[in-house]
Structure formats: structure tokens, C-alpha cells
Amino acid sequence: MKKYFLFFLLALLSFQVFSQIAPDKYYIQFTDKNNSPYSLNHPEEFLTARALARRAKFHIPIKENDLPVNPQYVRAVANAGVKILNTSRWLNGVTVYTTDTVLLDSIKGFSFVRKTLKLGAAKQKQDKFRKEAVLPKGVAPVFKADDIPDAQYGAALTQIKQINGIYLHRKGFRGQGMVIAVLDAGYSYVQTQPLFDSLRNDHRILGTRDFVNPGGDVYPQHYHGRMVLSCMAADIPGTMIGTAPKASYWLLRSEDARSENVIEEYNWVSAAEFADSVGADVINSSLGYIDFDDTTYSHPYSDMDGKTCISTRGAEIAASKGILVVNSAGNSGGSKTFPWIGAPADGDSVLTVGAVTATGIRASFSSIGPTCDGRIKPTVMAMGQGDAVANSTDSVMRASGTSFSSPVMAGMSACLWEAHPLATNMQIIEALKKTASLSDNPNSLMGWGIPDFAKADAYLGVPNRKTGENTLTTYPNPFHDGFFVKVPQNISGKFRLTLFSLDGKKLFEREFSVTGSRLSLHNTFLSRLKPGIYLLRLSGAGENYYGKVVKDRK
């Protein structure tokens, strides 16, 4: 299968396979990081201030895997005569290129080298990702007359409205101050496409980096990254507005469009490490790895356990550093032999995004779960059939694939995180799961379903809560038949307790008089409530206190 999730394009080109074989590339694993000039006591030497701020904010310690690869080891390998491609501090190794196996034999003898691994030769193709197809019938976005007030979103209206993302934009959360790293195959015409004018004019393209051809230009290499980026960053009212039009972006190339080679998983890890080092908040990866040109490297289903594949290991480490990793589920859902998600979408801490149609039905191509160790995947769903994406000139085209459901979700998640900056990456994922359409009964086809970002916003904190208002303590939480509310010390006399649904509907209200340090709520109404998340407001002595409670399913 194609690891690059771009199916059903309107503009299609055929591809021609060439017989040329790619040069040999290798991974060299080091034994340690001994005698390194870098120290955990001086992380500012290898992590930016923004990366350090993320760690401090979420109490993430600096660990040995944060230390760069020992530069002395890298120099010794380079002096042996091979070309250094990328280093990996998380894996503690380097990828290299050479056609001389004698050099590899010499390097194997270095005392600091644990092993060398040939990463396979790949057939060179004009473009492995173009596939002849037509846009399926019935996938046009659902426009209605009552959508006119939101017409500024243009062709992208349905894909953001479906997840109730306009709600956050109207509250002023459009990705300001958030940094998203995009891992892809190239970003053609991003420098000239008008949909990215504000991105360029505001200097919110923070930089680029090529991990396929180090030092290369990421822009001309491929079109796919431009389409992915537009789902988040496009910003022309009336034509197309993405889900995070005010965020800043790093454009990273980890994917070679000409081949299916396992080295791209190592590129992915190096790119994710770079994203971490520059302080990215979110990674969007519309990529996945299952089959390779050299089939001896292909992944069986048993590898989809969240810990085996190199890219998955990298994604899990990135998440441990506080980054929200968002990845396409894949487009193999219609396969009879391998309908499951690929790597790194199998990562336990990865927000894995499947594709639905404009009407919310699972797209037939969207890869499914569970993982081989029984975990539910995908995590959530977003529109991935007939999405609006940037074309190569000055307008919008339609394309389908989980490649596009992923950035739709990544951009909107960045806005949610902007609204709740103290939430962790895992709390963002939990909020999306708990408030999605299938939260009561997740499954291996659509995970927890289609998120509602207004409800997720409410789950993370009461909307429009004023600075200085206090958090209400309740227990047990989740509850079954009832719960207790801890009464704040400065409330006396009479006060009112109100229970709301996530959409703000008042469900229950009572007045009480203070008789102790806690209030008991155990009644028939609460026992009959449907499982889910509810908001509480306690009013008294001129103060308001807020909290949330979860009704369990027992």
C-alpha cells in the first residue's frame, strides 16, 4: 500500500517506474553518549528556549535521550568515508549513505558502534503517490442556506463546521502563539499561493528543513505538503480558511516521494526531534509506514503494537516531551489483506485521525483498528473525503484521504490548546475522546468518533470563566448515583447549585443552606442521568465556583 495518504485527487498524473536503484543507506547504532561535550545541566546548548519552556510548563525532566549524539562518534564515522545524512539523539545513532560495503565493515569495528543496519535499496519512481482515480460521487461538501453567515470559510466550511471548530474561532482562538511542525514530502507553491499570503507576510513560516536530502530545498519536492498545510493555514475569507490560520509553522521534509524505503521512518524520527528542539507544540504527520519496495523490511500486522516500528517509537518519545502528535490513520481500510492502521498511527499516545465524508459517514478507504495488541484505533475522525485543499496556482481543489482529515484535526486541536494552555497534550486528546460522537461506545472503525470542539472546550474548562473564579471540588468523580461537593470556606448562608449539559442547557438547580463543609447530592434525577460529562456552578456570597463531573456507565 502507499504510505502516503493521498487518494482520489481531481488533478491526476500517471507515473512511470524507472529501473534505477537507489544508493544504499545505513543506520549506525551507537553504544552510549559517554564523554559528550553536552550536559543535562546545560540543556540550553541543544534545546531552544521555547522547547525548554514546554518542559518546564509540564514538569518534563531533561533526560539522556535529549542529549545530542556524541559529535566525536559522528566525526569518526564521517572520517571513515561515508556521508552523514541525519543524526538521532532519541535513537542514539546516525543514518549514512555509501555504496562501499568495505567502509561499513570498518565502521562495525569501532568500539562505540553497537550495530549497523542496511536500510534497503528502493526503486526510483516519478511519483509513487499519484494514483489514477476519480473523485467519488456524492462527496461534495454539504452547503446549506443557513451556512451563509459562515461563508468566509469558503470551500472549507464543511470540514471545520463538522467538528464545531467555528465556535473556537469566534471566541478568538485561531492558533495564535501555537507552533505546528508539518512532516511531509514537499511544499510546492507555498511560496506563491495566495492562500498562504498572510502566513508569509506575518513571517509565520518559522523555517524549513530537509531530512531526505540534508541542506536541500523543501519547496519544489512535492505537492502534498502544500495541500496538507492549507487545511490548517489557508486564510482568504470567502475562498478558504483553515483550522489554524494564525498559527506558526515549521515545514519539514522527511518523505521521499520517489520510493518506499524504511529510511523514511528514521527521517521521521529525526524530523520529530528537530520539531521538539525548536519548541513545536503540535506535529502533523500525514504519513504512514507498512509496505516497502524491499519487502523484507515491510511491517506485518504484529508490528502494529505501539512500540515496534521506528517511527512509532519516535512518535511516542515526541509525545513524552509534551508534543501533541497527530497522524493520519491511513487509507488501507478497503484492503482485504491489510485494512489496519500503519506506523506511527499505532502509537498509544498518538492522536490518530481517520476520515469521514461530509455527512459524517466513515470513508470506505479509512484504515481501521484495533492495534495488534487490542487498543482502539483510530482515535477520532474528521472530514477526509472531498476536502478543500490549495491547488498550485491561486485557488482550491478537492482531494480525499486521511492525509487531510489529520491536519483538519491538528489545526483545530492547536486552537483548543491555545484556549487551554495549561492542559497537557494527553488532556487535549482525552477531551476530544470524551466529547466525540461515539464517546459512549468507541469502536475499531471510527474510534471515539467525530469530536465537538465546543464540548471539548467545555470539558477542559467552563467557557467564559473569569480570572479569579475558583474551581469546584467534587467527589467521587466519576459518579454513579450521586456525589459530594466541597463547600468553599467563604460561602455562608444560602447558595445555589446548577447542573448544566456541555451545550449549556440547565438540567438541575436547587437552593441550599450551608450546614457543613460538604454538600450531598444523591437523588433519583442524578441516578437516571445518561453517562457523560456535566458542568456545575455554585453561586453564593457574590461568588461563582465551577467544576465538572462525569457520570459513569455502571
Brief synopsis:
This protein is an alpha/beta fold. 21% of the residues lie in helices and 23% in strands. The strands form seven sheets. Strands 8-11-7-12-13-14-15 form a seven-stranded parallel β-sheet, with helices on both faces. A five-stranded mixed β-sheet has the order 18-25-24-21-22, with no helix packed on it.
Descriptive key words:
554 residues; alpha/beta; Alpha-Beta Plaits; Rossmann fold; Immunoglobulin-like; 3 domains; seven-stranded parallel β-sheet; five-stranded mixed β-sheet; 13 helices; 25 strands; 23% strand; globular; disordered N terminus
Task: Describe it.
The chain is an alpha/beta fold. The chain folds into 3 domains: 23-50 and 61-120, Alpha-Beta Plaits (2-Layer Sandwich); 145-460, Rossmann fold, CATH 3.40.50.200; 470-551, Immunoglobulin-like. The chain contains 13 helices and 25 strands. It has helices at 49-57, 71-79, 101-108, 157-161, 166-170, 197-201, 224-233, 263-277, 310-320, 402-419, 425-434, 453-460, 524-528; strands at 17-21, 25-30, 83-88, 93-97, 113-118, 123-125, 179-184, 205-210, 235-236, 240-241, 248-253, 282-285, 324-328, 351-356, 380-383, 387-390, 396-399, 470-471, 474-475, 482-486, 494-500, 506-513, 518-522, 532-540, 543-551. The strands form 7 sheets. It has a 7-stranded parallel β-sheet with strand order 8-11-7-12-13-14-15, with helices on both faces. The protein has a 5-stranded mixed β-sheet with strand order 18-25-24-21-22, with no helix packed on it. Strand 9 and strand 10 (240-241) form a beta hairpin. Helix 11 (425-434) crosses helix 12 (453-460). The longest helix is centred in the C-terminal third of the chain and has 18 residues, at 402-419. It is globular, with a radius of gyration of 25 Å. 49% of the residues are buried.
